[in-house]
Every structure is written in C-alpha cells, then in structure tokens.
Amino acid sequence: MLSLLLLHFALAVCAKPLVDRLGRKAFLVLAVAPAATAGWALSRWDAAAGGGTDDWTWAWIPDEHLDVALRLDALSCLMTVLVGAVGALVLLYCAAYFGDREPRLGRFAGAFTAFAGSMLGLVLADDLILLYVFWELTTVFSWLLIGQDSERRANRRSALQALLVTTLGGLSMLVGFVMLGEAANSFRISEIVDRPPEPGIAVSVAVGLVLLGALSKSAIWPFSLWLPSAMTAPSPVSAYLHAAAMVKAGVYLLARLAPAFADTEPWRPVVLVLGSATMLLGGWRALRLTDLKLLLAHGTVSQLGFLAVLTGAGQRNTALAGVAVLGAHALFKSCLFLVTGIVEKAAHSRDLRRLSGVGRSLPGVCAVAVLAAASMAGLPPLIGFAAKEAAFESLLHGTGGAADRWALAAVVAGSVLTAAYSLRFLWGAFARKHRTHGPGLLPDTPVDALPSGLSAAPALLAAAGLLLGPAAGLTDPLLAAYADTFPGDLAGALAGAEKPYHLALWHGIGPALLLSVLTWAAGALLFALRRPLLPVMHRLAWPRAERAFRSSLLTLERVSLQLTGAVQRGSLSFYLGIALVVLTGAQIAVLATERPWPELRVPRLWDSALQGVTALAVVAGALLCLFVRQRMKAVVLVGLTGYGAGGLFVLQGAPDLALTQFAVETVSIVVFVLVLRRLPARFTETFSHRRRAVQGLLAVCTGVLAAGLTWFAAAARQSEPSGPHLVHATAEEGVKNVVATTLVDLRAWDTLGECAVLAVAAVGVTSLIFLRRRVGTPGVVARRQSDAKALVWATPSEEWQQASGDAPERTWLAAGGTLSPERRSVVFEVIARLTFHPVLVLSLYLLFCAESYPGGGFSAGLVAGLALVVRYLAGGRFELAEAAPLDAGTLLGAGLLVMTGTALGGMVHGSDVLENGVYHGELPLLGPFHIASSVVFDTGIYLLVLGVVLDITRSLGAQIDRRLERGAGARPARPPAQEPPDPAGEVTP
Hints:
Strand 1 (54-61) and strand 2 (66-72) form a beta hairpin. By secondary structure, the protein is an all-alpha fold.
C-alpha cells in the first residue's frame, strides 16, 4: 500500500520531465501507477470478500494516539479498484485526447497523478487525521485541475468556488474528527466503527460537523453549486474527479461511518432529507439544460443524492445497494463524460441544439454511449439495473418505517428523472433533429476524424458495465462483506422484515421490477412531453447556483468591509487596547470562576537589596516613558527597562536568560532606531484626558493582572519542581547547561515550531518593505561605487576630490569610501573593524560551548547578527553587503533545513523524531571528540536567527537607505560651473 502511494507521487514529480521528453505519450507511463493499484486490489479481492484485511501502521505520535495507518477491507478494496481502474483508463484517454503542444500539459499530468495518489490514500487511510490530510490534498489538486486553463476567467472562478466550498466543509469535518477521536479515545477509524463512543451532545455535534464535510465534498444540496461550475475543466478531469473519484469521497465517508453513527442524531434525518432533495432537484435541472456536460453534471448531482440516501440509511441491505450503485455509477458516468469529450473534440460543440446526426458519423461512439446511458437508466442486463433493483428492494422491505417509504418515493421519482435525462443526453448528442423554425431536419453536424485510441477507454468502461450485469453475483461477496458490518436490528430480525439481500441480475417478477418498469415508462413519457413541459420547467426552476454563489460572496464582502471599517481604524493603540481588553476580560472571568487565591502564600519582595534597586530602576524607566515627547528618548528608556530585566536575571543566577535578554534588547533598540528615521522626531499625537484615563486604567489592569497571574501560577504549584530532575537528566548526558539542553533536546519540538514561526514572521515583516521583490545582494564595492551619483551617502565634495586627482583615501572598512566625510566616524569604523571578527568567534564559542556553559544557538545567532549590525551602522548598506554576501533567505532556509534534517535523522536510525544521538570519534593531533545531534540542531537555530537579523537589517536599514538615495537622486544637481570648495576646508579623517 505504501509503495503504491509513493509510486503515484514519484510519478507526479516526474510528470513534467516525462511530458517534455515524451509529449502526450507520457500519460501511458503515468497510467502505470493507477493500473498497478487496480491490479493489486483485484488480487486482494477474495481475501477482502472473506472478511480479511491488510494493515500497515507507523506510530507517528504515540502519546497522542496519532498513527500513519493504512487498511484495506471490503469497502476500501472496492474503492481502490474504481480509483485505480478508472484512473488508468482516463490517463490512456488523455494520451489521445491532448496534443503535444497543449499548454501546461506537464503541470496537468503531475496534478492528475498526484490527485490519483491522494484519492488512493484517502480510501486506504485508517486514521482520521491521515484521512483529513488526503482529503485536503484532493481538494488542492482538484483546484489545480479545474483551473487548468487559468487564462480563462470562468476556469479561475470555478476552481475558486470548488476550493471554497469543499475547504469550508473540510475544516468543519476536521473539528468533528478531533471531537470523535477524543470521545472514542482513538483516532483509528476501524476502532471507532467497532467500538463507537457513547451517544451524547459532543458526539452529535461531531457527527453533524463530519456530515457537513462529507455532504459538501459530494455536492449534496445546498453545496451542489460547485459541481456544475467545475465543468469548465477538461473532459478527462470531469470523467475522473466528478464521476469516479472526488465526488465519491463524501459518499465513501458516509459509507465508512454509517455502521457506527447512523443511529446517532442528526445523521439519518439530515442524510435522507438532503439526499432525496438533491436527487430530485438535480434530475429536474438536467431536463432543461442544453450543454451536454452540464446535463451530465446535474445528473451526477442527482445520482450523488441517490447514493447518500442509500449509504446513509443505516441498514444492511440499503448499504449493499448503495455500494453497488456506487460502482455502477463510476463506470457509466465516467464513460459518458469521456464520450462527451469525444463529441466536443469531433464536432467542436457541446450544445445539443447545434448537434445533429452525430450518431451517423460516429456510430461506435454512439453505441458506447447507449450502453452507458442504459446502465444509468437502470435497463437490463447492465450493472445499473442490478444495482437499482437492489435499491428498490432494500427500501421496500427495510426496517426504517415511514422514513423508508418517503425515501422510496423520492428514489422512484428521481429514477424517473434519471431515465428522462438519459434519453435527453442520447437524443441531444447523437440524434438528427428537426429545425426549430420551419419544416425539415437540421443538416448533419460535420465532425473531424478522431485520434486513434480515443474511443478505447469509454468502450472498456461500457463493456465493463455490460459484463458485470450478468456477473453481478460475483461482486456480491465483497459488497456483502461490507454490508455485514452494520449491526442487526433486533426488532426487524424477529419480525423477519429484513432478510440479507444478495446482488444478482434477476430476482424474478416482484414489486422492485414493477417499480423499474414504471420508472422507464414514466421517464420515456416525460422525455416525449419535454416541449409542452418546458414552460413548466422554467417556472419551477430555482435560481442558478452561480448567481447564488456570487450573491453570497458579494454579501460576505460587504459585511467584511463594514466590520473592517469598524475595527481596523489604522490606530496601533486601538488594536493593542482591544487585545488587552480581551486578555484581561477573559482572565478575570476565569479567576472569578476558579478563585485560586485562598491558599496563596505571600511572596518575598526580593532576595537581595540589589534586586530591589534594579527593579525600582526598571519601574522608574517605564514611568518616565509616559512623560517624554521625543521618540528617541522613549526608545532609550524602553531599552533601559529591558536591560534592567536582564540584570535581574543575572542577580537571580540565570546567565543564559540574561545573555539572551541583553542580545534581544540590543537588536530591538537598533530596529527602533532604524524605523525612527522615517518618523517624526517628536510624538505628534494628542489625546484627550478621557482617552488618557482609559488607556492608563487599561495599562494598570493589564500590569496588575500579569503580575497576579505570575504569582498565582507560582503559588499554585502542586508537584515537585522539575529543576532537580532536569539537572539529573542533563548530567546523565554528560552536560551541565540545563537551559540549552532543554531547548534543543527535551523540548526540541517546541523549539522547532517556534523557529518556524520566527522565520515566517521575519519573512512577513520584510515583505512589507520589499513590496515587489527582494533586492539581491549587490556586487563588490568597486562596482557599487560606479553608481555613486545615486548615493545619498556621497556628497558633491567627494566627486570634486576625485576629479581633482587627489590620492584615494585608505579606509578601515571595505565600503568606507561610499560615505561622505561628514557622515563618517573614524572611531566607529576602527571599532567595527577590530571587533567584527572577534565577535563572530565569540558567537561560535557561545554556540559550541552551550552544552556546559552559558550560550546556545539563539543567543549566538543574535551576537553574530549584532556584529553585522555594527558593520552596517559604521559603513552603510554597501558595507553590510560586503560583510554578509549571502542572501538572508538562504540562511533562513538553511537553518530550517538543518533543524528539520536533524529532527528526521532519528527516524533514519530507527528511533523517534528529534531523538538525540552522539557520535564519538578521534582526530589526529586533536584526540577524541564527540558530536551530538543537539549541537547540530542548535547550529540550525544559529543560522536561522542570523538570517532573521540580517533580513531585518537589510529591510529596515539598507532598503530604506535605497529609497532615500532614490529621493536624493531625483533632486536637481549642483551646477557644473560652480567651483568646489577648498579641500583644506574639508573634514578628513
């Protein structure tokens, strides 16, 4: 199973090179994966029919009961055969349908193969979370396939519509999955179905959310609007996704969970009512459409409602009928979509009003369509007849009481509509038609010659439907193996109401056969009276789904604009105030409910007087920030509070925290200073006394709450402190630094997630500066100086000195010559030159000594970043480019790659993710050494933090410099005739 999944995705990755090399023949290679899947499933058919299963499990997160679990049983075996066989035939069809010069054919082939692999993973998944992952993968790949011709607006809109509807249902379903897994104490689907959780409000809500996801995926009303719109996709996509695969995912989920939850509210009412409504509305709509694909699309919607009724009814015989109809529908509907693609390709139209006499020109294609449409209408001896007979029989003799009678009435009425639109499709695609105005027949539509092999795939599908009709009994053991998983109804069994039904072509003359004859006759009559009934159809038609979707989006946009206008006022203080109000309000409500203070102990104010003095200095600095009017003074005071907090860490004996606090505070001050260059020097906002009072009250409440929560958390400790245990754990590993070991070993998962968030935040912040694209790292300084006219750092005096023939200055920094003399500081340049390399060496020392001494990748990366910041402040953006020739994105990516590789390294050696390991070796002259995986992980943190600092420095520093230079370059230059000042009067270093 795993090999087949990997084969699909491997071929998907190789699809574009294969198409570039082989052209459309690459589809023949890609068809190997689904064909092998179908062959493997057929080889396991008998075992699955006997109740056997094939299982493969890998414990992903054992503590959370999350596994990568695959399972093949009777239901998944049937779905695997359909997904593989139909997928292989559609890929063979693509080899003849597309041309070698089809635009974006490689992307289409890759997305199609990846979708087939995702669908295979969905039907084999035995874990709720894994099923959701493949569920969303099918959504993403279907979005790509529907929007294949992305230059057309209709394709883009249809793809977005399908994505929005199915994603909304998928997210709701995920919440339901989590609730079900928690209620059942397991996320394994097989375990949940065997031992479902006790009914209750939580389980009912979870079932409702899961139904929302399943019904939206299978286009059940009111979510059916996306499927007809998706007909803008190529015909092979419609034949696979919208007949055999994607739209069956929701039906498959209903069939999978029905044995456990069909009796749980609100399962049966929702499924029966919405399924019946969908069958009737879709069939009625199909009777008045003139586009062949849209006709089939609404027919598919109708059939999906039929499938939902059968698979969700919660009875053994209806379930057997449901999976029989599911298989039959995949065969005849995918065949009809492929036939529609042939007709469109030959006649260049899908409008049945323009098509006439195509059956005379394409008799073989017409014969194939007749077989498929007859199976859709339920005519013998095709598989569709056997499946529909099973549906009638199961609803006639079911144990559902009045619900079964109403469902039977809806199914019979829907079958009448099915027979009518089946005839309408055959007439519209192949029959000769009379003129709308005037006597006589329309001339036959000219058709082009068909590519060789184009009719092979639909012919095989139609033949399968014909052969499986008489051989329906051969499929009964597998279908019955699934149906027998439904719990028996005791009252029904005692009354003998529901006996096990067995699928077969002929069960004799009975009520089910009479209902079938009735539906054929009524369907033929309805088709014959189509013209007189056309005004009635138009009067009873509901608004188009596309119009409803546009209206809903427009309403959503208006509401969002009003809400945004009310909340997003452009005031940072307002945003911060809202966040603090929510925080304080929620926490105060919790405190008032829990009341944790009766057993609190009075905390000590300080351990030493020096701590009290430092704390008072921090408070004083914070209070002074309220009264200063200059931004730079406020930044300095805020920085002093941060350094004071670091001093408290030092006094408390936490050098690691202090080192990190000092480095973070220094970088923060630099960022503040860089930003202040674009802001006024003084605060210009004026606030009323009322607003100041409200802000002050909120600030005091927030501070008191933060201090109180800290006190409550520390005083509410119930277990022993973990410090001694951490010291013991680190000592066993031969290291001493508890903080660094905790970050990169004991809590490495948290660190990995936080680093990923840090990288995303850095990219987001810098993207606000680089509106279009990131500016690459400039070349060498000599090449930069060729553009000196645009430099804001250069002044006319520099140009005059160069023109006068003076000897070039010797600078301490590589890019020092790009600065104008009045903006240079020789002392700063000397300090930057002398300290840069020692600081880098210090950062490496902090990185590699972190096992036993203060340090670590985070603080070391900050220290290295500060070295680059000093070079930038001393020499400008060119100096920064000279000091760090690498792109910041390269460092970010390398850091994440090293951390992720280290995390997965444990799996390579047969242990868990992020499992620590140590390599011991010996080097000449140096002697024995060891390398721990935690040090490698810390190196990734070092690279990532360094990349973050470099990215921020370039965006808030160098990029703003570039904009200032552009502004300076736009100013009028000094007249050339003006004499330069005396060089002796210039300030020189």
